[in-house]
Amino acid sequence: MAHIVLMGAGIGGLPAAYEMRDMLDKQHKVTVINAVDYFQFVPSNPWIAVGWRKRDDIVLQLAPLLQRKGIDFIAKAVTAIDPEANQLTVDGGQTVDYDYLVIITGPKLSFDEVPGAGPVSSGGGGHTHSVCSVDHAEAFFKDYEEFLKAPGPIVIGAMPGASCFGPAYEFAFIVDADLRKRKLRHKVPITYVTSEPYIGHLGLGGVGDSKSMLESELRGHDIKWITNAKTTRVEPGKLFVSELDDKGQVHKEHEVPFKLSMMLPAFRGVDPVAAVPGLCNPRGFVLIDEFQRSKAFRNIFSAGVCVAIPPVEVTPVPTGAPKTGYMIETMVTAIAHNIADEIAGKEPKARATWNAICLADMGDTGAAFVALPQIPPRNVNWFKKGKWVHLAKIGFEKYFMRKMKTGNVEPVYEKYVLKMLGIERLSEK
Asked: What DSSP designation does 203 have?
């Protein structure tokens, strides 16, 4: 009997647990360890932050879901990993032995890299908000309700080293739409401040016509922007930004005023993972081979935001490559196949496609991109906008939440519809 332990139960971790359980004989044990006792649908956090969703709409209690599938669950944070002993330690000192470990923890939010950044709950200083977790989104909404009584400037964007730019754009447009509905938009100047070298870069070197289309949308919504923005510090009501030129030299200094701000932070690997010698790169992200397997430890696999992916290109202000939802799903499927093969005495052969599908809501319209694969050069590369994306994002939220409730991670109709579009989870080459 093999014991597979999964660290994390988020967008990647919960589907991974389901897929692993379905693929392995019942004699093998699957255990999920997660710091909190609930799953949260992170893509809906921007809606939480403006009151378009409530916490119960996007949060599921993990224990009954996992129990129904025959998966053990420990709702505690991992404090240490001993890969030589094949053992984890969790809060309280309990140890858990494993035969295979799957690390799908998501990131550590590095607010501390910019003085004064981060919500109060993060210990980061309390001057900027985040929508990276449901707790942070709820904290924004609390301040947003007070803000609406006496509106002022808003700053939205991404800090140096950030790798997930889609939610920042999405949130800027959602806030714009909400303020228009409230007939308050004329009282709120919005500035988009980003470490990207140009609008629509997205950490991917652009996707299709993303540059021109997103620039046009920002202009059309009266949102000003600063690119190549190296945010150096935050003080109450002020964002201090060095705007760099293409050579990385300071072109202009900005003091951007705000009454409310949401700035996505850079990511690092979580502490117990980053602390394992040889497992990670200097940022604490897991170094993996083509089979999603650790380069240092053959029985450790990893997927999602916590894996090391080099930047697509060098940029004046550091930017990372995003790990989008479907890209993570392809990683998870590859891991499930490869662990099943190893248990059966076979060499792993499944490779994730890292295909990317992204739906970004803009209030009453939206933008979508498909990058196959996500890292260029690509076989498919397009960026589109329209009301259909807004509706598709709503539909996807409901669809994904239902998948997590039922434990069916890839219904047959999803598999064949995506296949018709040329979107596959596993690579044939």
From this structure: T
pLDDT tens sequence across 94-104: 999 999 999 99
Q: Using omega within 30 degrees of 0 as the cis cutoff, is the peptide bond preceding 411 cis?
A: no
358 belongs to the catalytic site: yes
Is residue 175 within 8 Å of 190, Cβ to Cβ?
A: yes
Which residues, in sequence order, are CB contacts of 95 under 8 Å at separation 6+?
87, 88, 89
Q: Which amino acid is at 414?
A: E
Tell me the H-state helices in 52-151: 55-58, 62-68, 134-147
* Mean local confidence (pLDDT), 52-62: 98
pLDDT of the residue at 121 = 56
Rounded CA separation 313/316 (Å): 10
Owner of token pair 């597979």: 4
Choice among 132, 280, 306, 358 that is catalytic: 358
Is 85 exposed, middle or buried (CB count within 10 Å of its CB: 0-12, 13-18, 19+)?
Answer: exposed
pLDDT digits (tens, 9 = 90+) for 114-172: 999 998 755 556 899 999 999 999 999 999 999 999 999 999 999 999 999 999 999 99
Catalytic residue status for 164: yes
Catalytic residue, candidates 132, 164, 280, 306: 164
Domains in the chain (CATH in brackets) are 3-109+268-349 (3.50.50.100), 111-266 (3.50.50.100)
- Grouping H, G, I as helix, E, B as strand and the rest as coil, residue 172 is helix
